């Protein structure tokens, strides 16, 4: 125990925060209220961070994302409720000196919430491990819990972490000595269990990806006659642009004629081929394809690599095909080479559909249905940037007059 640090009282509040980005915008606030060295209440607030933006790294830690907090209040909207638990109380947090002190103060300042700086004591400083050189090494939340014979569950949930911090402080109050050997042994066991769990998750993801891949490739739509595809090779890895075995694209022999099957097509790439992704995207530009990042109703072609095809893209593709959208699939290295270099092939050889066309069905009933005002005092579309079909059936002059398209009125008048 560290007898030089503050001795905790029997009444205190333990707190914990989780944040969404490296700017540390709070997305969750948790606390545990302790009276007479017993936890009597815990509270958790899910909070919408600034612009409801998350980073992949922080989401991987606590599991929260923009969907989690889409309908949650912001910090200013809940602060008075949180503040009622903190005012006049002794406050503790595990690793407070590195996280809670700075994060809470930063958020209160950024939101311009009036406050006096909070004194938050760090429960890590209650311990000094005699077998380590640094005072704070090996005394994280998990380490301390295991050293005291306590469990660590739902780590990185703010309310759970606050309660576990409170348990550590209560153990100190009750004079319980930590067993750091037990902590190290438990940590090793937990790490092995996590490895086994992650390996099982990896296998499940690969099985799901293979299933999605198979479904996406074998699904049929009107007018599509796909050849039998080969199964992908799945492994958790991302190609490096300079990795040995990645073949260069022969740009001198690309089929850049307008007859290229991908010329003018909306194309999405997922997974890896025998060529680098960077070179493939450059080649698609060279042959006149329109590269897109997501699969939508307007997608005409999806290039599906033999490795690491994205499960989300494959799921979107499968759903669209199931709903009747004709999207061509070009799979694997062999078909990619054909579409890049073989000038004898056309779009029909890959069952590539025509691009989706925008159609306009304009009637006064349509505008009235959608509550557009076409008369005095407000014409909601006059002067706006509008799409006009090349040929208009009916009274074109009336149509242009309603839309405020003066140039067309002058042409008709002549």
Per-chain topology:
Layout: E1 12-19, E2 26-35, E3 38-46, H1 56-62, H2 75-86, E4 91-93, H3 100-110, E5 120-122, H4 141-147, H5 158-173, H6 180-218, E6 266-270, H7 277-286, E7 290-292, E8 301-304, H8 311-322, E9 328-331, H9 332-341, H10 364-369, H11 396-403, H12 406-413
Parallel strand pairs: 1-4, 4-5, 6-7, 6-8, 8-9
Antiparallel strand pairs: 1-2, 2-3
Helix pairs in contact: 4-6, 6-8
Shape: elongated
What's the helix-strand series?
EEEHHEHEHHHEHEEHEHHHH
End-to-end gap: 95 Å
Largest sheet: 5 strands, mixed
* Secondary-structure class: alpha/beta
Secondary structure tally: strands: 9
Calculate Rg over CA atoms: 31 Å
**Number of spatially distinct domains:** 3
CATH architecture of the largest domain: 2-Layer Sandwich
How large a portion of the residues is in β-strands, by DSSP E? 5-15%
Query: Briefly, what CATH class of the largest domain?
Result: Alpha Beta
CATH topology of the largest domain: Nucleotidyltransferase, domain 5
Q: Would you tell me the overall average pLDDT? A: 82
Strand order of the largest sheet: 3-2-1-4-5
Question: Could you describe the 3D structure shown?
Answer:
The chain is α/β, with parallel strands linked by helices and 414 residues long. The protein folds into three domains: 167 residues, Nucleotidyltransferase, domain 5 (2-Layer Sandwich), CATH 3.30.420; 164 residues, BRCT domain (Rossmann fold); 50 residues, no CATH class. It has twelve helices and nine strands. A five-stranded mixed β-sheet has the order 3-2-1-4-5, with helices on both faces. The protein has a four-stranded parallel β-sheet with strand order 7-6-8-9, sandwiched between helices. α4 crosses α6 and α6 packs parallel to α8.
């Amino acid at each position: 125990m560290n007898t030089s640090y503050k001795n905790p009282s029997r009444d205190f509040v333990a707190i914990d925060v989780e944040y969404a980005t490296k700017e540390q915008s709070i997305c969750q606030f948790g606390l545990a209220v302790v009276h007479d060295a017993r936890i009597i209440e815990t509270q958790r607030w899910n909070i919408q961070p600034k612009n409801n933006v998350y980073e992949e790294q922080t989401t991987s830690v606590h599991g929260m994302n923009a969907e989690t907090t889409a309908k949650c209040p912001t910090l200013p909207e809940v602060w008075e409720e949180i503040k009622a638990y903190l005012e006049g109380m002794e406050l503790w947090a595990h690793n407070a000196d590195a996280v809670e002190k700075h994060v809470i103060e930063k958020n209160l300042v950024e939101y311009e919430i009036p406050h006096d700086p909070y004194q938050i004591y760090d429960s890590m400083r209650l311990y000094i491990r005699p077998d380590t050189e640094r005072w704070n090494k090996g005394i994280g939340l998990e380490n301390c819990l295991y050293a005291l014979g306590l469990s660590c569950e739902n780590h990185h949930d703010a309310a759970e972490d606050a309660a576990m911090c409170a348990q550590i402080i209560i153990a100190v109050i009750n004079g319980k000595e930590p067993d750091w050997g037990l902590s190290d042994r438990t940590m090793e066991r937990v790490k092995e269990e996590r490895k086994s769990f992650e390996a099982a998750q990896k296998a499940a993801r690969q099985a799901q990806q293979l299933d999605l891949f198979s479904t996406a490739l074998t699904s049929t739509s009107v007018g599509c006659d796909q050849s039998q595809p080969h199964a992908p090779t799945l492994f958790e890895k991302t190609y490096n642009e300079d990795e040995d075995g990645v073949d260069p694209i022969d740009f001198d022999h690309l089929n850049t004629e307008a007859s290229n099957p991908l010329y003018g097509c909306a194309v999405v790439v997922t997974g890896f081929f025998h060529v680098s992704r960077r070179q493939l995207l450059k080649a698609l530009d060279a042959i006149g394809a329109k590269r897109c990042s997501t699969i939508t109703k307007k997608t005409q072609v999806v290039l599906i690599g033999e490795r690491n095809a994205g499960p989300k893209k494959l799921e979107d593709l499968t759903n669209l095909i199931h709903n009747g959208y004709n999207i061509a699939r070009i799979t694997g290295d062999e078909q990619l080479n054909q579409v890049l270099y073989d000038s004898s092939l056309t779009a029909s050889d890959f069952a590539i559909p025509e691009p989706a066309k925008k159609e306009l069905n304009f009637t006064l009933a349509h505008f009235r249905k959608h509550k557009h005002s076409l008369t005095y005092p407000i014409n909601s579309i006059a002067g706006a940037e509008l799409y006009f079909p090349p040929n208009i059936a009916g009274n074109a002059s009336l149509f242009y007059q309603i839309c405020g398209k003066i140039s067309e009125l002058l042409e008709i008048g002549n």
